[in-house]
Amino acid sequence: MNTFSRLKHLGMETYHVFNRNKTSWVGLLLLMLLVILALFAPIIAPHNPVEQNIIQRLQPPSSQFLLGTDYYGRDVLSRIIWGCRVSFVIGSVSVAAAMFFGTLLGSVAGYRGGYFDNFVMGVMDVLMSIPTLLMGLLIVAILGPNQANLIIALALTMVPRFARIARAPTIAAKNKTYVEACQAMGFSDIRVLVVHIFPNILGELMVMGSMWMATAVRTEAALSFIGLGVKPPTATLGGMIREGFKDIMSAPWASLYPGLVILLIVFAANLLGDGLRDALDPKLRNEN
Amino acid sequence: MLQYIIKRLLLAIPILIAVVTLVFFVVRMAPGDPAQVILGDSASQESLSALRGELGLDRPILVQYGEFLFSILKGDLGTSIIRKQSINAMVAEVLPYTIELTLAGVLLGVILGLPLGVFSAVFRNSVADYVVRIFSLIGLSFPAFYSGILLLLAFSVHLGWFPVISDPDMGNLGERLYMLVLPAMNLGLIMMAYVVRSSRSSLLETLGEDYIRTAKAKGLPGFIVLYKHALKNAMIPVITIVGLYLGVLVGNSVLTEIVFNRPGLGKLILSALDERDYNLLQGLMVIYALIIVLVNLITDLTYGMVDPRIRKQ
User: Fold this and answer.
1) Would you say the C-alpha torsion B221, B227, B228, B234 has a positive or negative sign?
2) C-alpha angle B277/B280/B283, rounded to 5°?
């Protein structure tokens, strides 16, 4: 099979997986809608997200400011749209990094076995025993709150989850006759891993990627709420709740709407992951 | 069983040491001089070097690490650099609040979640099942600080059933429990979502087993098959739910304490961050790691006790 037909096959397979479970479509569409909103923030956002206007502060929702204004008179809707960008960038880059390094470490550890395997999985166990929020809190508090450190912190806690997913099927596959045949034919380890073992774990990686994206977005929001997010005046959803919390009695819109959007992003990612898992799990396939 | 316990205990020790090591070196990566942070920019060179000597910062890092590890083994978390208090005493003071909050949350989550999960599995693919599943997915998508704010707004501000600022130290046991209701509800409702999902999927899996079919084929009534045969086995994985979602639970308890302004480990972490008290931050991380390793150990042992197959692995 050449590369094109292989990709086409993968695309068809993914399409069928989605069609098996309708909820994953809902999750995907909702997520796409929010991504488009974030991607086209400069065009869609009606106001400048950081421009302060003290005269207009804490205005309730109106035709001029659809979701009201915050303490500094900034438009809540525009800040939410721009805040989605930060959430998606941190969420997707940290998951992608964790997926890459985790899959690499897990599959190589499983393929090689021995001391290397024991060492890598030992380190993974240690990283996994620290809750995501606490790891984020520790690293960001020490290294400083910025986008790169947030991504590093979140990726570090997620690497072990992907390593574990990649390791088990690699061990199962490496003793199979077809892999032994590849080795006998002199294929490189990398080729065996990428071409013959990786496709077997792709489905589970997609499920986990989507579910950990939800956790990453939620954790980033929580860190911003604590005051360890990307620094103001950059709009972040968690940071908006933190700033709006002070005026929750008089101007609830400044903190409630950003929270609702975090909930929507996390829910959509979870829905997508849930649907994919049900569709890929042969036991559940005919039941849902 | 004893062999299993010893094996699990021995496995827990290296993880704990590695976590302590990780925390120590990450904290040492902090930019700037801790002595400068404490004394401020206007401090003289003499006072800075005196403080470095007092804090032991002038010694090689490996010596500092060795001392830190040794004092942890003795059960001493050190002294807060800002408040000059023993971290052990500070932790001991607030730990009961965190424990009561977390236990109440877990209890609430299990009491509400289990029946709903069973109901959802028994009436699989009904409208009610669909509703329960959607709500549980929403529940586990909720950031704990946001749900906390919503609960505060609804029950304290609008309905006035609970005070907005709660102080669990005020009054007797009854009032302390009263102050616990909203924060525990916040943890419990999210926990409930996890319990519903795992008990549902676990029961569904058990209901598909051969021995359940045999029980049905014998002509046993449906509820006896469910309660005597299926539920018992399906509940085993539910025991581990606390272990599995411990990370989420710990994170949520930190956020709940911050939103409800309750004393506890989470609030203490926040003040360590505000005061840049890295010693306190380091000590609290060690305590959290200890709690996590301990709870994982307990859930593993319980699991081993309930299911003999686990012990033999």
Assistant:
1) positive
2) 150
Q: Which domains does chain A have, with CATH numbers?
A: 18-47+62-285 (1.10.3720.10)
Are A280 and A201 a contacting pair, CB within 8 Å? no
Question: CB-hemisphere CA count at 13 Å for B8?
Answer: 22
Structure tokens that stand for A17 in this block:
């997986």
Report the distance separating Cα A198 and Cα A13, nearest Å: 15
- What is the phi/psi pair of residue B86, to 5°? -70, 130
Cβ–Cβ contact A267 with B under 8 A: yes
ipTM above 0.90, yes or no: no
Q: CA B159, CA A180: separation in Å to the nearest integer?
A: 69
Structure tokens at B141: 């998508």
**Model pLDDT for residues A91-143, shown as the tens digit of each residue:** 999 999 999 999 999 989 988 888 999 899 888 888 888 888 998 988 888 88
Strand, helix or coil for residue B86: strand
Residues of B in contact with A245 (CB under 8 A): 149
Residue B163 neighbours by CB distance under 10 Å? 12
- Distance between CA atoms of residues B191 and A252, nearest Å: 26
A126/B15 CB distance under 8 A = yes
| A127/A116 Cα distance (integer angstroms) | 17
Q: Which of A103, A108, A102 is nearest to A157 (CA)?
A: A102
Q: Are A130 and A115 in contact (CB under 8 A)?
A: no
